[in-house]
Amino acid sequence: MLPFLVGFCLVVMVTGCRVSEEFTWSGVGRGRTWLPLRGQTSFCFLSSARGWNHSGCRVEFDPVASAGAVEFSSGLDEFLCGVRCVSHCVDLVDLTPETILAGQGSHVAALVPTNCSACFFTHGQTWFKDAERCAIVVTGQFWALSSDSQQDSFVCGSQCVTSNSSIIVTPQALLTGFGPKSGSLLPVAQGFCFLSQGRMFFRGGESCRVRVNGLFWELATTSGQERFECGSRCIRLASESAAQDMKT
């Protein structure tokens, strides 16, 4: 049966993607590091966060080099930044420029239509009090980046991938309040998952991670804060190729 159109998207699920192991940075320090898979990467996203108290990290993507780099800055021993990269996504045709919300106040920025796209975090800094919150939300037929903050140094950033094929994005899973808590998201063989909401990544007691547990993606948290939030969405793929390069 031939593909058919819904809006401007072909209803053919994204194929061919491979997801890297998680690359992590922790402790006190600052720097900028190129990631592996240079020349093959399609895009990268944030997958773990802890101790973003006036600390944070950003994953940048160079489309010419098909490579990602991570820039991080931390004054805390408890700091953690995790990144994964996706390669060989033949059906994903474009990566949008990064959208940034920064500083004090409540802000919303429209991103791209939801029917042919998926959006994920690429930049986070100073998400450490209950007033600091960043989320990728659905507003009408568009993805949007939403933030609240009382800190001048707060930063929240996102990019989106678009496709001629229909991208199947799962509903958001959200863990809140005191923990540890965890929950299964999606079989590894069916796709990959990323962070989509965060609040109060304070010190070592507050962590938000999308990780692999056996055959499933899992959202896992620790928290000593009542208003802590950690959210994730997943992209569902057409084949099992996403599992080929997967490590925990």
SSE diagram, text form:
Layout: E1 5-6, E2 9-10, E3 18-19, E4 23-26, E5 29-34, E6 41-50, E7 56-62, E8 67-74, E9 80-87, E10 92-95, E11 99-102, E12 105-113, E13 117-125, E14 133-139, E15 142-149, E16 155-163, E17 168-169, E18 173-176, E19 181-187, E20 191-199, E21 207-213, E22 216-222, E23 229-236
Antiparallel strand pairs: 1-2, 3-9, 4-9, 5-8, 6-9, 6-21, 7-8, 7-13, 10-16, 11-16, 12-15, 13-16, 14-15, 14-20, 17-23, 18-23, 19-22, 20-23, 21-22
TL;DR?
The protein has 248 residues and is an all-beta fold. The chain has no helices and 23 strands.
Mean pLDDT: 85
Shape: globular
Overall strand count? 23
Which regions are unreliable across 5 or more consecutive residues at pLDDT < 50?
1-13, 239-248
Number of domains: 1
Radius of gyration: 17 Å
What's the main sheet like?
A: 7 strands, antiparallel
Between the first and last Cα atoms, what is the distance in angstroms?
37 Å
Q: In sequence order, what are the helices and strands, one letter per element?
A: EEEEEEEEEEEEEEEEEEEEEEE
Label the structural class.
Answer: mainly beta
Strand content: over 45%
Binned, the helix content reads under 10%
The number of helical elements comes to 0
Describe this structure as you would to a colleague:
- The structure is a single chain.
- The chain is an all-beta fold and 248 residues long.
- It has one domain (5-168, 233-243).
- 0% of the residues lie in helices and 58% in strands.
- It contains no helices and 23 strands.
- Strands 3, 4, 6, 9, 19, 21 and 22 form a seven-stranded antiparallel beta sheet that branches. Strands 5, 7, 8, 10, 11, 13 and 16 form a seven-stranded antiparallel beta sheet that branches. Strands 12, 14, 15, 17, 18, 20 and 23 form a seven-stranded antiparallel beta sheet that branches.
- It is globular, with a radius of gyration of 17 Å.
- 48% of the residues are buried.
- Mean pLDDT is 85; it is low at 1-13 and 239-248.
